[in-house]
Design brief:
Strand content: under 5%
Number of domains: 2
Shape: elongated
Mean pLDDT: 84
Radius of gyration: 19 Å
Order of helices and strands: HHHH
Low-confidence stretches: none
Structural class: mainly alpha
Number of strands: 0
Largest sheet: none
Helix content: over 70%
Length: 84
């Protein structure tokens, strides 16, 4: 979809330099940036990612008391960093 947006000149110039450095089109850069922005702020996506990480950790290791403590502590740290 084509759309028009207004952004500050300095942001545009930074984006142009980054697109050149990454060898991607301006459209690709903006689409990736917006996709990432939305994904990082979707509470359901954050929860799903945490659940996948915990499932993977549980599948990779035997669930001992020490492992469970580590996973719980890691989950608590991750939750403190999320914007709710």
């Amino acid at each position: 979809m084509k759309t028009a947006v207004s952004i500050p000149d300095d942001v545009f110039e930074d984006a142009e330099r980054l697109a050149d450095r990454l060898n991607v089109s301006r459209s690709r850069l903006y689409a990736d940036a917006v996709r990432d922005y939305v994904k990082r702020r979707d509470p359901d996506a954050i929860t799903a990612a945490m659940n996948r990480a915990l499932d993977a950790a549980a599948a990779d290791q035997e669930s001992s008391d020490a492992d469970l403590h580590f996973v719980s502590a890691a989950a608590a740290r991750a939750l403190k960093q999320v914007e709710w």
